[in-house]
Design a protein that fits this description.
six-stranded parallel sheet; alpha/beta; three-stranded parallel sheet
Length: about 350
């Protein structure tokens, strides 16, 4: 690295710190500067979810006290297929999990969906608007009452009580169908509507992929449509299993989940056709699947895909932005570039956020 490059990096670091302090002071002295009171109704929590078929109908037989996988210990990540991986969780009473990049993590759902109680240190510190659809209070109480474990009839009975309550909550709240229905409700959309789902950056993002699975199934069931652009080929059953296994996280939980599209109508397959469909308002709603301060030009208006035409053709109530990144959007800390990004886009459409702290 040259001296000039070092100087440039230092300058960017200090510039970022100056902006952070400036906006924090500005928000403290002029709390109305960011107009947060005018945008709070446009911001909604959106946690991860898990395909409905991956949530067990009832508690399985528990053969082991602890699940084999321990987060961060690579030697325990030995499973080459989903069946063995989920089976490992299903056979255990307890499984460790904790914050990864953010509070939300697909591992939580893999544990919960298999009727296992997660042991989640510091869960009580999780903001109320993050993981809001998980049974956080039940998990905290179960951890408190059942650990350290004693293999007595009383503990066994208490375990069944907590594990059943947690699994029942999850069947109703963390499935792709449950989360997609709540998303549609908050968006103001009906399940017979047509949604254009713009994927932005092509790299895997669980918030986008899992929400899309839920929306696709829900809308197709009621003669609606969720059309992805560009296509997310790895989500469909006809995607080669060998290629799916090379996707992020070995493709567990999200690849090859949807039936191949049955084209009931001619759908846009290139930019020109898509622009024309937007201009003619062929869609009821537009969803941007991957937005945020860390998503580059594709995750920020006005440089996100087709923004000029979308913003001219649709009202802000018909536009949604999905924030699936790891960083917390703390709306009490406007020194954060992530919070400012969200505040700006909440004036342009409805924002659905994975890591969120509103108060």
């Amino acid at each position: 690295m040259t001296i000039l490059q070092k100087f440039s990096n230092k300058f960017e670091t200090y510039k970022g710190k100056v902006k952070t302090y400036f906006f924090r002071i500005t928000n403290k002295i002029f709390p109305r500067y960011f107009g947060l009171e005018n945008i709070s109704d446009s911001i909604f929590p959106l946690g991860y979810c898990i395909p409905d078929e991956l949530i067990l109908d009832e508690l399985p037989e528990k053969k082991n006290l602890w699940a084999e996988v321990i987060p961060g210990f690579r030697d325990t990540y030995r499973f080459g297929n989903e069946q063995d991986y989920y089976g490992m969780y299903a056979e255990a009473k307890f499984a460790y999990t904790w914050k990864k990049g953010g509070w939300d993590c697909l591992r939580h759902y893999e544990i919960l969906g298999n009727g296992t109680i997660p042991v989640f240190p510091d869960l009580s510190n999780c903001p109320g608007d993050t993981l809001s659809h998980l049974p956080k209070s039940l998990i905290i109480q179960a951890n408190k009452e059942l650990l350290p474990w004693k293999n007595t009839p009383a503990y066994q009975e208490n375990y069944q009580k907590y594990a059943s309550a947690i699994l029942n909550h999850c069947k109703e709240n963390i499935s792709c169908s449950a989360v997609s229905k709540l998303f549609l409700e908050n968006l103001g959309a009906k399940n017979h509507h047509k949604i254009l789902f713009l994927n932005c950056d092509s790299n895997v993002n669980y918030s986008r992929e899992l929400l899309f699975i839920g929306l696709s199934r829900e809308l197709e069931l009621h003669e609606g449509l969720c059309h992805p652009y560009p296509a997310l080929d790895f989500l469909y059953e006809d995607y080669p299993a060998e290629k799916a296994s090379k996707c992020y996280g070995r493709g567990f939980g999200y690849t090859r989940r949807l039936k191949p599209l049955l084209k009931k109508e001619s759908l846009p397959s290139n930019d020109v056709e898509l622009e024309d469909s937007i201009r003619k308002q062929h869609w009821d709603f537009i969803v941007y699947g991957k937005m945020g301060a860390d998503e580059g030009v594709l995750g920020t208006a006005p440089t996100c895909p087709f923004w000029k035409i979308v913003s001219e053709s649709y009202s802000k109530d018909q536009i949604a932005f999905v924030y699936g990144g790891d960083h917390m959007q703390n709306m009490k800390d406007m020194g954060s570039k992530h919070s400012r990004h969200l505040a700006r886009h909440a004036r342009l459409g409805k924002c659905f956020v994975r890591e969120l702290k509103m108060s």
